[in-house]
Amino acid sequence: MTHYTQYLKHHVDLLQAFSDSAQQATPFTQPDLNNEDESAFIATLKKLCEMPEYNDDMNEKGQWLVSRVVSAYSHLMPLLNRDLLWFFGGNCLHYMPDDEISFYQQLEELRFSAEDAGHDFDYAAAKQSLTQTH
Fold it and tell me: Which pLDDT score is estimated for 33?
């Protein structure tokens, strides 16, 4: 598995965990999702979880999804891992304080350094290690 696919898999796993939790929350527990927005939200979430590679479409859909969580489903925000805000970037960064952005920039620098050196990079372990130094 390449470094990039390990990084993508980490974030897709976070998306899947969010999807599982979100679908157990209101309004998605209703038998019929008659609301177009709710149906579009779940369809987009499922599509993101199934994307085999990162591309611009994934980025746009991810940013749309996060904006919908913030504006329409704010009760789901605690279920959304903060890593996903950084991963999708763009407008999602508006929901992160400066110190959190700085943290993810440092984490990204560690990832790129490891990749440039040809080393494996364990994103979760690096994040934990960096968290302990802050």
Answer: 63
CA–CA separation, 2 vs 53, rounded Å?
12
- In whole angstroms, give the CA distance from residue 58 to residue 114: 25
Q: Which tokens belong to 48? A: 């993101």
Q: What would the pLDDT profile of 34-79 be if each residue is shown by its tens digit?
A: 688 888 999 999 999 998 788 888 999 999 999 999 999 999 999 9
Does residue 110 contact residue 123 with C-beta atoms inside 8 Å? no
pTM of the model: 0.88
Token pair, residue 36, equals 């177009």
Say if residues 76 and 25 touch (Cβ distance below 8 Å): yes
Span of 17-21, 83-87, 96-100, 111-115 with lowest mean pLDDT? 111-115
> Mapping DSSP to helix (H, G, I), strand (E, B) and coil, where does residue 1 land?
coil
Give alpha helix (H) positions in the chain: 3-22, 36-50, 56-71, 83-88, 98-116, 123-133
Sign of CA dihedral 10, 12, 18, 24: negative
Residue spans per domain, the chain: 3-80, 97-134
